[in-house]
Amino acid sequence: MSFSIGLSGLRAVNQELSVISNNVANVSTAGFKSSRAEFAAIYGGGQAGGVEMNNVSQNFDRNGDVMRTGRGLDLAISGNGFFQLKDGNGQTSYTRAGMFQRDANNYLTTSNGDRLQGYTVNGAGQLQTGVVGDLQVGTGSLPAKASTSLEFVGNLKADASNIDTALNPFDPAKAESYNFSQSSKVFDSLGTEHTVTQYFVKVGSNDWQVHYTVDGAVNGASTNLKFNTDGTFDAVGSGADKATLALTPAGADPISLEIGLTKFSQYASDFNVSRNQSDGYTSGDLTGVRIDPDGGLYATFTNGQSLLQGQVVMASFANPNGLLQTNNTSWQQSFSSGQPVIGAPGSGTLGSLTSGAYEGSNVDLTGELVNLMTSQRNYQANAKSISSADKMTQVLFNSF
């Protein structure tokens, strides 16, 4: 009986050594989760029968270190959750190894070709929450968009000098006919850039006029701006909360440009503009891809614009240790793990994403080396028990 008990100990410790060795070997494997051998005593008919390795559990509670790479498609999960993947056969798997790339068809994939899953967008570029599919980045150029509005936030100096418009009628070539000016970029339907300049003329206390030029030519439109005694915009006195300019660029569609007025103010501080941005842009070519902390996948273009392509989703399980391991860094769901709960990063119990980094292995190398020495001693002890049993048997045989 002693022989079989010692032999079971050798087998169990040898299996534990395999687990420890695998942990040490994968100390630099992205997304790897360390394993632990769990033992159980063997009894038969109330008699001790030795030991066996009952289970190998993985440590999903401890995150690996976040390894900064600067690559836009490297993603690290901080907290709970897995990336969802799908292979060429439609088989779904889950991983923590967030090193992705674009394949020949611009799908986001792992190094072995499994496609990253997420919420997709429809033809209008709207995110379809709840529709999970392969994430793909469009390859076409971004067409130009004509400007329709101009967001302008500025302060007109309250103690600026009044201008007598009878003596100095507005003329963009004469600086004495206006107090301040500011130019803005707008775009037509062809993506051609045009310059709209606003000229501000103070005509009385809390009373201003605004004149406009387009590409240096005077536009016939003008606007009245009136302010309250506390410096805020007076919509009633001004008569409107926006100005509308009619632009007729050559070879392009006419533009009706709206300029908001409600964010103007009149305080004693100097003239300044804190926001000057139209909603149009010229055409652009694809330059790269970025992923935001909420999983939003964007294509970036040479014109500075970004276009939503989808959103990375994450999955969580009630019992991660019930997952079936397919390799060192990916798993499949099982009856024991339960159904996955799918959601956007940062929602519910799901962790957050860090772009430009990946999660390293969570193996504690020092702890594994200590475990290795302990297992070696256990192996030696079991071998010694077999040796001792053999000597006792020899003594018994020699007594006859």
Overview of this structure, please?
The chain has three domains: 96 residues, no CATH class; 122 residues, no CATH class; 130 residues, Flagellar hook protein FlgE (Tick-borne Encephalitis virus Glycoprotein, domain 1), CATH 2.60.98.20. The mean pLDDT is 90. Strands 5, 6, 9, 10, 20, 21, 22, 23, 24, 25 and 26 form an eleven-stranded antiparallel sheet that branches. Strands 11, 16, 17, 18 and 19 form a five-stranded mixed sheet that branches. Strands 12-13-14-15 form a four-stranded antiparallel sheet. The chain has three helices and 28 strands. It is α+β, with helices and mostly antiparallel strands and 400 residues long.
How would you summarize this macromolecular structure in one to three sentences?
With 400 residues, this protein is α+β, with helices and mostly antiparallel strands. The chain is built from three helices and 28 strands.
Name of the CATH first level of the largest domain: Mainly Beta
Give the oligomer, counting copies of the same chain as homo and different chains as hetero. Answer: single chain
Which ranges are low-confidence, i.e. pLDDT below 50, for 5 or more consecutive residues? none
What's the architecture of the largest domain, going by CATH? Sandwich
- Could you tell me the CATH topology label of the largest domain: Tick-borne Encephalitis virus Glycoprotein, domain 1
Largest sheet: 11 strands, antiparallel
Q: Report the mean per-residue pLDDT as an integer.
A: 90
Fraction of residues in H or I helices:
10-25%
What class, by secondary structure content?
alpha+beta
Report the β-strand fraction as a percent range. Answer: 35-45%
Domain Flagellar basal body rod protein N-terminal: 5-33
Organism: Aeromonas bivalvium
Domain Flagellar hook protein FlgE/F/G-like D1: 76-118
Function: A flexible structure which links the flagellar filament to the drive apparatus in the basal body.
